[in-house]
Specification:
The structure is a single chain. With 155 residues, the chain is of the alpha/beta class. The chain has 6 helices and 5 strands, in the order ααββααβαββα. Strands 2-1-3-4-5 form a 5-stranded mixed beta sheet. The longest helix is centred in the N-terminal third of the chain and has 15 residues.
Length: 155
């Protein structure tokens, strides 16, 4: 676990992302939640919804990024932070880069599907147009337990 995550209370934005993840679990979606923050205020939030929306791109990050772009009336989310409960996948990492999100805070690592510290490591590629600051392990324990509990119930 990230040492910082052990010492400090969870930021309100990560608490909100965890709340979104719980909403996802309640409706049978993989419990991942995301929020976009601008100038200290949450401007968009979402949880995974691929099953409900019949859309394989309806990951929490994608939905939150789309909503934030609508709120700001801009495809660039310059100066925005993304809080997400699980390490972003390649699709979401690409969207984060294209949106020019400044900082990404995530909870649980995803050795199988993640693309930040695992897999293709999107932000480290020479072809990546924008590299956000990345802060892993924020809310890691809570996020990982939500995921473990969700999949344990389905086995």
């Amino acid at each position: 676990m990230n040492e910082t995550a052990k010492r400090w209370p969870l930021p309100p934005a990560m608490q909100a992302a965890l709340g979104e993840a719980r909403k996802a679990a309640e409706v049978g979606e993989v419990p991942v939640g995301a929020v976009v923050v601008k100038d200290g205020a949450v401007i968009a939030s979402a949880h995974n919804a691929p099953r409900a929306m019949k859309d394989p791109t309806a990951h929490a990050e994608m939905l939150a990024i789309r909503r934030a772009a609508q709120v700001l009336d801009d495809e660039r989310l310059t100066g925005c932070d993304l809080y997400v409960t699980l390490e972003p996948c390649p699709m979401c990492a690409g969207a984060i880069a294209h949106a020019r999100i400044a900082r990404v805070y995530y909870g649980a690592s995803d050795p199988k599907g993640g693309a930040v510290e695992h897999g293709c490591r999107t932000f480290e590629q020479a072809t990546c147009l924008h590299r956000p600051e990345v802060y892993p392990g924020i809310g890691e324990t809570e996020a990982a337990e939500l995921l473990r509990g969700f999949f344990r119930e389905r086995r």
